């Protein structure tokens, strides 16, 4: 009787696993995703970056039987691959292999997840790379990514969402190998795991995978409560000054109580796409800043975190969050030092284009809140989106990723469900949602810029000084009066500025 009861309990435990299946009998690849509900919010205070380091060490280290180099040599002929990603609330391991080599590849997957070697040499190597990122790479490689990470630090200050997933300079230094082992035991467990599998695989293989993953730690993770960012009062600006900045890179936003689980999300997708769909030239911000005025490379807006926007053309899966914010991205605009060098007629200007660009973007949001979208723009944007969102799931890995994200939000199939919601959406729904979720009075703004620009830009923002658009004579002569009239209106548009601070680049992410 005891044996029977034990069998029933074990069977029940196996059934309780969260599993997302995507059967694709006509493909020759198998993709496995393991999503752990932990993420950087589970980093202990003073050791921010621990979850990231733990996941990286699992995929960039060895197993009890194989070194990292051994594994790479074995999987090369199979054209197999694997890796990890960490966001605020989840960590994901992705494994992909041709079905012919699945049985050969599986012991490596199993060894990495269940028996990671956690060698000191691997730890030192992986930690060194992470330390270099938080100390140097984030500040030097891309001011656009820098301003984005700084915005999150600003918006979520004092919460578990504040720090980069990679951690901070001092916190990464404090992480030990024992810390990694404890994080693995306490937060990479069978009790916070979602299994995803796509491709042409057998039921027997899935059963084996599920059974083996029951050997993960049995700890029930102590997950932190949902993050609640502090309300922003007024427009608050942090200017990060550094030597030899390419221009002024701007990210701005405010907390927004909206995620994919809400009914209003489809309406805000339309509004956001119209304002500034990522990497699309039809958005209002792009049209006004780049197309008409040739100010920079692109200008976009977001109603949820968009991972690695500098490289990704389509919204990637794998970063589901319960806490959200609206943001807009103004890619680097020129600073006064550059403009003075290029154009003799601009030798007397005090600041570059940043103040004007922020005013124009905020004014466009303000106009949308006050006036809404037109029926023509609504219909065109909705039609575009119904086709565009289907491009999110072009590969088995992306399809599986979105199905797993859907489950995180309590949905079944986000892309298909969103298409149906968009089909039923009305113009009134969109304009009502815009008024509900968007505003222009309370915004956090981060600007990464050159030291020569920081002080005059801060003065202009603090005092709400007029910020005329600075054109070369040749460009200005070719612009219609409507554009020049709009420039005057933008230059004098009042921002609800509360505070402006200048921060040295060396003092960020400490």
Task: Please explain how this structure is put together.
The radius of gyration is 25 Å and the shape is globular. The strands form two sheets. A six-stranded mixed beta sheet has the order 8-9-7-10-6-11. A five-stranded mixed beta sheet has the order 1-5-2-4-3, sandwiched between helices. With 510 residues, the protein is an alpha/beta fold. The chain folds into two domains: 16-213, Cytochrome Bc1 Complex, Chain A, domain 1 (2-Layer Sandwich), CATH 3.30.830; 235-375 and 441-507, Cytochrome Bc1 Complex, Chain A, domain 1 (2-Layer Sandwich), CATH 3.30.830. Residues 1-15 have low confidence and may be disordered. It has helices spanning 2-15, 50-59, 68-75, 102-114, 120-140, 143-155, 169-173, 177-187, 203-213, 265-276, 284-291, 336-342, 354-371, 375-388, 396-408, 414-424, 427-437, 451-462, 473-477, 481-491; strands at 18-23, 29-36, 81-86, 91-98, 193-199, 235-242, 248-255, 299-302, 325-333, 443-450, 497-504.
